[in-house]
Amino acid sequence: MEISVLTYNIHKAIGNDRSYQPDRIIQILKDSSADILCLQEVDFQVPRSHQDDLARLLAEAMGMEYELGLNVQLKKGAYGNATLTRFPILHTENLNITWGIKKPRGCLMSRLETPAGEIAILNFHLGLAGFERSRQVKMILESSFLEMVRDLPTVLLGDTNDRTGRLNAALKEAGFVDSYTGNRMNSFPSYTPSPLIRIDKVFTNHFLEVTDHKVLRNPGTRVASDHLPVLVNLRIKRHKTKHV
């Protein structure tokens, strides 16, 4: 069976024109036809985004189930990561990966039921400092959730903020391989003629085979957020279903 996953930092649905337009994000998500959507910087009842529950708004427009993990509390409202999916959500927990006094960060971890069996999705937004990101990846890799799903096809994806790829070695040692195919498809910043940085990434374990990896760059994605969405197609190999 093949499924598709998308990671996208939607920047609260506020585009490069400084306009809050969730309909642009909805159209991009629909055009992607992805089965699982992992979004970062998703607002919840924040004035700048009209007090919308943005995850719910997007999920209803897509006809998907969703979970929202709030990490950053504001004076009014909060924001974090959201996972939307065509598949039933069996279990979700939000891991706090905040390091010290740095900005709050989280990893939204879910088990989904696909026609080919269960799959685990870990949707994260890592910090800006190198040592911070290393600690956060360690927290994710040592989490009880990851231990629980060790026999499942598992995808780690999100905004890594890792410009150099230094995190890849630690993830590879833990059994997670970058889906990047080496064709220099960068995802940030979206508004430049040729985006310079590849920080939005997808990592998979050996139960999954990457069949396609692409950055969605078009007139819509160039303005809707400061990041471009990354879409990866995966083939699920035979595996044991984890019952918890």
Report on the architecture of this protein.
The protein has 244 residues and is an alpha+beta fold. It has a single domain, classed as Deoxyribonuclease I, Chain A (4-Layer Sandwich), CATH 3.60.10. It has helices at 22-32, 54-62, 130-141, 144-148, 167-173, 221-224; strands at 2-9, 36-44, 65-73, 78-85, 89-96, 106-114, 117-125, 154-159, 177-178, 200-204, 208-215, 230-236. A six-stranded mixed β-sheet has the order 3-4-2-1-12-11, with helices on one face. The protein is globular. The two termini are 23 Å apart. The mean pLDDT is 95.
Provide keyphrases for this structure.
globular, alpha+beta, 244 residues, 6-stranded mixed beta sheet, Deoxyribonuclease I, Chain A
The major pleated sheet works out as: 6 strands, mixed
End-to-end separation in angstroms reads: 23 Å
| Helicity range | 10-25%
Task: Please tell me the CATH architecture by its name.
Answer: 4-Layer Sandwich
Runs in which pLDDT lies below 50 for 5 or more consecutive residues are none
- Highest CATH level, the class: Alpha Beta
Strand tally is 12
Rg: 16 Å
The CATH superfamily appears as Endonuclease/exonuclease/phosphatase
Which SSEs are present, and which pair or pack?
Layout: E1 2-9, H1 22-32, E2 36-44, H2 54-62, E3 65-73, E4 78-85, E5 89-96, E6 106-114, E7 117-125, H3 130-141, H4 144-148, E8 154-159, H5 167-173, E9 177-178, E10 200-204, E11 208-215, H6 221-224, E12 230-236
Parallel strand pairs: 1-2, 7-8
Antiparallel strand pairs: 1-12, 2-4, 3-4, 5-6, 6-7, 8-10, 9-10, 11-12
